[in-house]
Amino acid sequence: TGGAFVFISPVIGALGTFVTGSDTNSNVLFGKLQTMAAEKLHIDPNWLAAANTAGATGGKMISPQSIAIAVSATRMEGQGSTIMTGTMKYCAAYIFILGLKVGLFYYWFMA
What we know:
The protein has helices at residues 5-20, 23-41, 45-62, 64-74, 80-110. The protein is an all-alpha fold. The chain is elongated. It starts with a helix and ends with a helix. Helix content is 86%, strand content 0%.
């Protein structure tokens, strides 16, 4: 992806949280990937590590563990897919806007 990696870096953080259910675990899982990619692309590694963390917060909205807790807390048994569908559009918008923000801010102020 080259220089476009800055724009998709938050997506990787969100994916990590979706898989693990935890922002911290997402950072552990993909933190090294982000910093290695930054070094190869001559980008400040702290920038992509922060982008990973920011994206991880979006992944928390749609992680299966969070959906299960929401279903249990609201007594909406059997409606996990409804909650997931309703939340997915907000998560996608959040990650998209975050990717644009991270990428554009990087190229405007850091590059």
